[in-house]
Amino acid sequence: MVRNQIDRHLAQEIFRAHEPRERITTQVAWGEEAERAELKHHGDRAEVLGPVLRVRAAGEGRPRPTRASAPLVHVAGAEDEVHRRRHVVLTGYFEHVLQLPLSYHGNTHSGRLMKMMLQGTEALWGLWVGFFRDNLSSLISLLVLLPISLFINWRLALLLIVLCVVFALLTAVIVRKTEKLQSSVERHYSDLAERASDTLGNIALVQSFARLEAEVAELRLVVERLLSAQMPVLSWWALANVLTRTATTLTVLAIIIVGTLLTIKGQATVGEMVTFMNFAGLIIARLERSVSFANSVVSEAPRLREFFQVWDTVPSIRDRRGAIDPGRLKGRVEFKHVSFSYDGKRMAVDDLNFTAMPGETIALVGATGAGKTTAIALLHRAFDPQSGQIEIDGTDIRKFKLAALRRNIGVVFQEALLFNRSISENLKVGKADATEAEMRDAVERAQALDFIERKFEGFADNVGERGRSLSGGERQRLSIARALLKDPPILILDEATSALDADTETKVMRALDEVMKGRTTFVIAHRLSTVRKASRILVFDMGRIIEQGTFDELVNAGGRFARLAEQQFITTAPIPFPVTVN
Questions:
Q1: pLDDT tens digits, residue range 181-209?
Q2: CA distances from 385 to 202, 316, 344 (A)
Q3: HSE (CB half, 13 Å, CA atoms) of 257?
Q4: What's the pLDDT tens digit per position in 506-538?
Q5: Rounded Cα–Cα distance for residues 23 and 1 (Å)
């Protein structure tokens, strides 16, 4: 009761205050006296300032909203919810992109995907919020105001209806003219994102080959093409702005002239004239807002189209219905009549048949493009074979959950792949809960501890983008340590020692000998010295296995492998450790 009386008294004081000022500056009143002074200062515009929050001094508790501030609190809450939903969509899009197969990423530039993700979510929520917050009310206002104007004076109302028709026709014409042009503009924006990302990602190449001026010049050409495509779009919408404003001015003049004539003839009153002038102002404001929204829709449509094209892309490699998590596998791998083609014409691998038992080391050798890497990529489901099947422990790998399968396989790639993060974060890619002792043991076994202690203060130091603060051999050793830390039952070494010097390679191979015990290991190699100790060697040619056996058996057979060994000056004589032939 007392609070209600105080509120009514305060409202009476507000509405007795002086005339409203031209500019209203909304401020947050600190304390009760400041709030009352602010409300009194703005007089009968106090309704605008109703949403004022009382904010206590720091340490006195959370801000407490007044009763009048409730609308602002609700609006702020809605805005917060919108931003939360926007980031949920952005995160979902990012997760979806990561699930797309390597073949998709091989054909789509990462800079383009990044641009689609950021601009697509911004455009989506910008249009969504803009429509429901501003333009929906404008549309409803038009639907309400026009019938009312017909009821008041149908002759003057016809002028407003004609104005609406003119706006609609102009907007439709401009949209039709600029739709394809804006799609071209968006393609140029994507090209710009690709080129900038590509150049920055290869900055070492740019600087070492003195490509600075050339890259900048080529970027300028992309920008010039972008501007050439953008200017016609801007010109069309500028023309639309001029024509709509001209139509607005002519309509207002027509209302004044027609209204004056109708008043003279007694067919309209001065009140109707004033009413229609106000109606015209309201309708014109909403029509201009609608045209602006149409401009935004046309501008953002290509971005949204690209965004949803990626979103609608179905990953070709995904979990089947009823897929299982087998836990830790033993590592018996069997290829049964496996064939795969990238383009549907030339077979990358053709009718592969072999079995690898747990603890065996299987080496895959052959010329570049013979199918070695493709065969191993099929094992961890970078692709699925078009015919045949791959089994682990007697189960088709397509029956396993994708994440569960890949948890059982460790890969050391030919190109060391590192994040722009700390050493520990890169190592924990292999085992998220690894302790520092486990990481230290892994890097020591991979012969990486010496350079980490020499170049860094600890595992918390950053390795730079793509590991650029490390040499090629150091990056490779760190990636080997990551695979060792994962401790998988199946290990894939894709030219894992190709970036190492002879001495380091020897040390790493001795460490890998220990790691390979009790697990299935696949070694892809061109340097035959690294596969001398393999349990079995598969010689690939044109996607087929043409020879298989131990190192000595294949050399003595005098076939393709023997010729490769002869070219690298390798004999069957035993050697104490692997030798690198340059």
A1: 877 888 888 888 888 877 887 777 777 77
A2: 34, 12, 12
A3: 7
A4: 766 766 776 677 789 998 887 777 788 888 999
A5: 36
Residue 422: DSSP 8-state: B
Pairing relationship of beta strands 536-541 and 387-392 according to DSSP bridges: unpaired
- 8 A C-beta contact, residue 495 and residue 414: yes
Q: Tell me the C-alpha distance between 460 and 437, whole Å.
A: 14
Host H or E run for residue 582: none
Bridge partners of residue 411, in order along the sequence: 492
Measure the CA angle with vertex 503, ends 500 and 509; round to 5°. Answer: 70
CB 519 within 8 A of CB 331: yes
What is the rounded distance in angstroms from the CA atom of residue 260 to the CA atom of residue 269? Answer: 9
Helix (H) or strand (E) holding 354: strand 347-356
* 138 burial level (CB within 10 Å; 0-12, 13-18, 19+): buried
Q: Over the stretch 45-83, which tens digit does the pLDDT of each residue have?
A: 333 333 333 333 333 444 444 444 444 444 555 567 667
21, 45 contact by CB (below 8 A): yes
Measured in degrees and rounded to the nearest 5, phi and psi for residue 90 equal -60, -45
CA distance 198 to 109: 9
Does residue 38 carry a pLDDT above 70? no
Residue 547, classed as helix, strand or coil, is: strand
**Section 253-257 average pLDDT:** 81
| 374 and 349 Cβ atoms separated by less than 8 Å | yes
All residues at 6 or more sequence positions from 123 whose CB lies less than 8 Å from its CB, including other chains: 300, 303, 304, 307
Give Rg (Cα) of the chain: 36
CB 50 within 8 A of CB 71: yes
Cβ–Cβ < 8 Å for 78, 88: no
Sign of CA dihedral 552, 555, 561, 566: positive
In the numeric block, the tokens 């052959």 are attached to 366
Give pLDDT tens digits for 342-370.
Answer: 887 788 899 999 999 988 889 999 888 88
The answer to whether residues 243 and 170 touch, using CB atoms and an 8 Å cutoff, is yes
Residues with Cβ within 8 Å of 14's Cβ and at least 6 positions away in sequence, in order, are 39, 40, 43, 44, 46
Q: Fill in the DSSP letter of residue 511.
A: H
Are 259 and 273 spatial neighbours (Cβ–Cβ below 8 Å)? yes
Quick one: how many helices (H) and strands (E) in the chain? 19, 12
Tokens of 563: 């010729």
Burial class from Cβ neighbours inside 10 Å (0-12, 13-18, 19+) for residue 581 reads exposed
From the list 123, 116, 127, the residue with the least C-alpha distance to 94 is 116
Give the count of beta carbons closer than 10 Å to the beta carbon of residue 127: 18
pLDDT of res. 413:
79
- List 65's β-bridge partners, or say none: 53
pTM value is 0.65
Distance from C-alpha of 202 to C-alpha of 212, rounded to nearest angstrom? 11
* DSSP states along 296-352: HHHHHHHHHHHHHHHHTPPPSS-PPTT-B---S----EEEEEEEEESSSSSEEEEEE
Supply 27's token pair: 């401020």
Q: Which of 219-233, 263-277, 429-443, 475-489 has the lowest mean pLDDT?
A: 263-277
- Identify the pLDDT of residue 5: 41
